[in-house]
Amino acid sequence: MATDAVIVGPGRARPAGAALWAPALDRKAAVPVSRQLAAALRAAIAEGRLGAGARLPSTRALAGELGLARSTIVAVFEQLAAEGYIAAQPGSGYFVPVGFAAAGARGPDEPAVRVAARPGSGAGSRPLSHRGARLRELAIEPRGAPRPFQLGHADIDARLVATWKRLASHALSGRSRLNWDYGDPQGEPVLRQAIADYLAAARGVRCRPEQIVLTSGTQQGLSLAAQVLLDPGDAAWVEDPCYRAALDILRAAEARIVPVPVDEEGLDVGAAPKGAGTPRLVYTTPSRQYPLGMAMPLARRMALLAWAEAAGAWIIEDDYESEFQKPAQMLPSLQGLDRAGRVIYLGTFSKLVFPALRLGYAVLPEDLVRPFAAARHLADRQGSSLPQAIMTEFMLGGHFARHLKLMRQVYAERQQFLIDEAARRLGGALEMRPQGCGMYLTAGLPSGWSDRAVAAGLAVAGIGALALSALTLATPRPPALVLGTAGHSEAAIARAVERMAAVFERQPV
Questions:
Q1: CA atoms of 112 and 285, how far apart (whole Å)
Q2: Is 311 within 8 Å of 345 (Cβ atoms)?
Q3: Of the residues 102, 175, 260, 261, which has the fewest C-beta atoms closer than 10 A?
Q4: Helices and strands per DSSP (H, E), number in the chain
Q5: Pairing verdict, β 314-318 and 343-348
């Protein structure tokens, strides 16, 4: 039988049969033999075992050698030709295109091509963009199983799960409004209308549905804002201390970070460093400063808005969990007070419902909608229609309002439970006071202690506390820990406080 594959080199050729590249085909496997053969050919070409210019066996000869129907071989060759791996030459058969360059390999008679290495490239290093180099240095922590006081968790009870399952079943039935095709990059219009109505009633936000772009959460909203508003080297003012992910996003965008200290009323632009210049944007958490927990009073909000209008700066308002504050204590959003169109309002359902939902929104001034929508489109075209359809029904059916009311009570009780347990077991080593409500609180440590050392000791004991100094940029503050209470049961909190007592006993006085 013929084995007429030929490797063509500079000035000579030598034959090579299918045995050089075709594996034993498993006729009992779930994968059809045609797909097995196609995969083997692709790999042989990509790895250089069939170099540029190699002629493949005739379809008749290969069918006989492998014991397959000739029509199977023809179909495989035609598929690979359509993909560009091989090319047909009338009267001569199929060849690997001469211009085909194998990645990291070459044919046995193919001359080596040397490529000049860029600075910084080598066996263990490959050149990256400035942004890529920054991203490579970013520490991404695996989540794993929840540990007591670890941030970023939520309470998920059986009622929420049952409701979500029922709404998901309805969304997947023929009776729903689920869009099975590509949709609007801004998000499903019905959900955007529901969000606009909700925000107007609950947060005093003034917007039309057309001003909303759905995101996968506040982090994507801030990332889109950085793309649209910042050039490398532009100044971005941030609260000090600040949400760590926000800092990472702005640094990855090559912004020049300017830390602005917060006081008992939150961000104060008047306290910005001398000579800081005018920023392109200011990032703030006015409803509940993260991580210190204070709310920005009305007078400070109005002063911030007036300053932004005069300076021509954008304000990123991260309203990450104001829904868990008592309604009577909530002030209107900055966006609702803004008359100059300087505020970008970010919200998320991932914290309010459950983290895996990955659904949030940005409320934008009119002139930013189009570039934001385009940036969202280029990132991943659009969010999934299924979670949007379920969330729409969750809101319109009244489930969202009931869920928030329940969680507001649960989180307030959980916070108070931690305060009581710490007072009972830790002998005043943690200074805690109720911080309204919410998913975490910040607790002061004795003067002279290192909060990073304490956090490291607690981590060894299986406790996920965050050192306040890890979120601080330039303004020294007394040592403290940021402790998440959401998603951790009272029993888990009680056991964790016992372990904390043992760690605290080993701290130097």
A1: 58
A2: no
A3: 175
A4: 15, 15
A5: parallel
Q: Identify the architecture of domain 158-401 in CATH.
A: 3-Layer(aba) Sandwich (3.40)
| pTM score, whole prediction | 0.75
Closest CA to 507 of 462, 461, 460, 451: 451
Q: Are 224 and 362 in contact (CB under 8 A)?
A: yes
Question: Where does residue 314 rank: exposed (0-12), middle (13-18), buried (19+ CB within 10 A)?
Answer: buried
The architecture CATH gives domain 6-95: Orthogonal Bundle (1.10)
Q: What is the enclosing helix (H) or strand (E) of 484?
A: strand 480-484
Residues paired with 346 in a beta bridge:
318, 362
Copy the structure tokens of residue 131.
């942004």
- Please write the tens of the pLDDT for every residue from 404-438: 999 999 999 999 999 999 999 998 899 987 676 78
User: Is residue 61 a contact partner of residue 41, using CB atoms and an 8 Å limit?
Assistant: no
Please state which CATH number belongs to domain 410-505. 3.90.1150.10
Cβ-proximal residues to 348 (8 Å cutoff; 6+ apart), any chain: 217, 218, 320, 359, 360, 361
Q: Determine the Cα–Cα distance for residues 231 and 238; give it in Å rounded to an integer.
A: 17
Neighbours of 113 (CB within 10 A): 7
d(CA 226, CA 234): 10
Which two three-digit tokens encode residue 227? 């793309």
Which of 94-103, 151-160, 458-467 has the weakest average pLDDT?
94-103
> pLDDT tens digits, residue range 155-183?
998 999 999 999 999 889 876 778 788 88
How confident is residue 228, by pLDDT bands cut at 50, 70 and 90? very high
pLDDT tens per residue, range 229-253: 999 999 999 999 999 999 999 999 9
